[in-house]
Amino acid sequence: xxxxxxxxxxxxxxxxxxxxxxxxxxxxxxxxxxxxxxxxxxxxxxxxxxxxxxxxxxxxxxxxxxxxxxxxxxxxxxxxxxxxxxxxxxxxxxxxxxxxxxxxxxxxxxxxxxxxxxxxxxxxxxxxxxxxxxxxxxxxxxxxxxxxxxxxxxxxxxxxxxxxxxxxxxxxxxxxxxxxx
Length: 181
What we know:
Elements lengths: L1 H21 L19 E10 L9 E6 L6 E7 L6 E10 L5 E8 L6 E6 L7 E3 L4 E10 L9 E11 L17
Antiparallel strand pairs: 1-4, 2-3, 3-9, 4-8, 5-7, 5-9, 6-8
């Protein structure tokens, strides 16, 4: 009997040792995260146009109207234009999104050779950065030289190319795309 007790005790100790060797602590760790992305959204506003005709001789005019479907596009129409007249339109690019943006470029549709069009105020010292709820003013200048045609109405398109601020503009060599502004 003593032998059975010793064997039983040894067997019990062996099982306990095996149990301790195989036992491990377990627990689960769950990490929940939420990502809220921003929105890149722009609009064109504050359009004010004028020309250089003398007072009392205002026979020509220009209109600049934002496109209803594309918030980054202006439709510009010149009515009753004639040689040597210059038109100017001031407009703003508004960041009504939640992330900073930059103006990458301004594109103008094809124009007659006698019409000189220039947009200033953007990208003069690198990309123009606009913060949320901010805006930047641009100036559109249209000049007709002496080859302007009679009885014509001219319409053209101005598109403002924007991107999120941390992406480098396509025409920039800076690979970082960072702007500490």
